Every structure is written in C-alpha cells, then in structure tokens.
Amino acid sequence: MNSKIKKSVCVMSGGMDSTLSAYMMKNSGYEIIAIHFNYDQRTQTKELECFHKICDKLNVLEKYVLDLDFFKQLGASALTDKNIEVPTGGVEEGIPVTYVPFRNGIFLSMAAAIAEKEGAEVISIGVVEEDSSGYPDCRESYIKSMQQSINLGTKDETNLKIEMPLVHLQKFQIVQKSLELHVPLELTWSCYKNDTQACGVCDSCRLRLNGFNVAGVKDPIDYE
C-alpha cells in the first residue's frame, strides 16, 4: 500500500528550540523540509553553520536558505542593528530590544508559500510562550490567528496546520525532551552576541544556561 508522505516545513534557526521542534516532527513521521533565514543578525554565520549540521543529522532532503536584507534596512533591534547594544544585565521590563519587528509573522508567511508549493500539511515553529524573552510573536494566540490567515490566503485545497510543540514548555523541559530524543544540542546555538564562544550573559544565553542548570545537566557548548 502506497501511503502519501507527510511533509512538515520546519522553521529552523540553528537554536535549541527550533531544532527540538524539528526532531519532534521527524519523530511523528514527517519528512522534514527545512527552512532557515539569514536576516543579517549578529550571529548569522554561526546559525547557518549550525542549521546545515543539524539538517545533516536529521537527513533532511530538501532545505531552503533565504536571505532577507530587509531586516538590516529596518534595524530597530539589537540583533540586526550594530548601534544597539545587546543587553547583558538580565531581565528587562516590557518587550526587549532584541525583539525583531514581526519576525515570526514574516517567517511564517514565507514558510506558508513553501509549504503550499511542496504539498506539506504542517509548518513547525519552535516558539516558546511561557519561558521566552517576552516576544509578542511567540504567543500561542498569535500563531493560531496566523494559521487562520494563511489558510484564508492560500488555495482551497491547501489546509495548513502550524505546529508549535514547545509553546507551553519551560527551558528545562526543552532540555529534558531534547535529551530524550537524542537531539544534538552540541550543534545548537542560542547566543545573541557572539558566534565563536557563547557570551553566557545575554538574555538567550541566560535562559539556556538556566534550563540546563534546572535539568541538572551540563550544556555541551563553550562559553566565554
């Protein structure tokens, strides 16, 4: 019996969350179509290198690397504007300066176009609502509304589901689940500032290190 191959377009940054999300899709029987965005972020080179290595581990057959120079022109975020310092002092009030305006909305729109072309039924994104940096585009309610908009704006026979398997997990649970699924955490990158050794003090490094600490295991990547 020739059953149809299930495909999932996985938005993959090279970070821990999106990598786990892709592994969960693979584990659920989906063929992975990997998509990565270069948007002139500070750690672009390192993230791209991690993405390719993770795709090799996942035996990804189809991958897209998309260059978005629009974000550099836009600026307005410490990740894309070198004139804005990446904060290293811990928790900020409100939406942090590392928020990139509507980034996930733009990524999901492009992923939807690829999913429609490739005949995929799912888009996967590693957003985390409860233990994230407070980004508005990581909220479950937002992703659900995006799913509705994507399905309204595509062909009638296109019926896409956006999977966000980590949305209610905390970082230590993400570490635990990654270990359970043999995710190559040593290939993932979270630091906002550096692309050789992780800084250990930016918001993303702090969240990651705390996750490993609470899970009671050592982070396999190098820190300054």
Automatic annotation (TrEMBL):
<feature type="binding site">
    <location>
        <position position="199"/>
    </location>
    <ligand>
        <name>Zn(2+)</name>
    </ligand>
</feature>
<keyword id="KW-0671">Queuosine biosynthesis</keyword>
<keyword id="KW-0862">Zinc</keyword>
<keyword id="KW-0479">Metal-binding</keyword>
<dbReference type="GO" id="GO:0008616">
    <property type="term" value="P:tRNA queuosine(34) biosynthetic process"/>
</dbReference>
<keyword id="KW-0547">Nucleotide-binding</keyword>
<dbReference type="GO" id="GO:0005524">
    <property type="term" value="F:ATP binding"/>
</dbReference>
<feature type="binding site">
    <location>
        <position position="202"/>
    </location>
    <ligand>
        <name>Zn(2+)</name>
    </ligand>
</feature>
<dbReference type="InterPro" id="IPR014729">
    <property type="entry name" value="Rossmann-like_a/b/a_fold"/>
</dbReference>
<dbReference type="Pfam" id="PF06508">
    <property type="entry name" value="QueC"/>
</dbReference>
<comment type="function">
    <text>Catalyzes the ATP-dependent conversion of 7-carboxy-7-deazaguanine (CDG) to 7-cyano-7-deazaguanine (preQ(0)).</text>
</comment>
<feature type="binding site">
    <location>
        <position position="191"/>
    </location>
    <ligand>
        <name>Zn(2+)</name>
    </ligand>
</feature>
<dbReference type="GO" id="GO:0008270">
    <property type="term" value="F:zinc ion binding"/>
</dbReference>
<keyword id="KW-0436">Ligase</keyword>
<comment type="similarity">
    <text>Belongs to the QueC family.</text>
</comment>
<protein>
    <recommendedName>
        <fullName>7-cyano-7-deazaguanine synthase</fullName>
        <ecNumber>6.3.4.20</ecNumber>
    </recommendedName>
</protein>
<feature type="binding site">
    <location>
        <begin position="12"/>
        <end position="22"/>
    </location>
    <ligand>
        <name>ATP</name>
    </ligand>
</feature>
<keyword id="KW-0067">ATP-binding</keyword>
<dbReference type="GO" id="GO:0016879">
    <property type="term" value="F:ligase activity, forming carbon-nitrogen bonds"/>
</dbReference>
<feature type="binding site">
    <location>
        <position position="205"/>
    </location>
    <ligand>
        <name>Zn(2+)</name>
    </ligand>
</feature>
<dbReference type="InterPro" id="IPR018317">
    <property type="entry name" value="QueC"/>
</dbReference>
<comment type="pathway">
    <text>Purine metabolism; 7-cyano-7-deazaguanine biosynthesis.</text>
</comment>
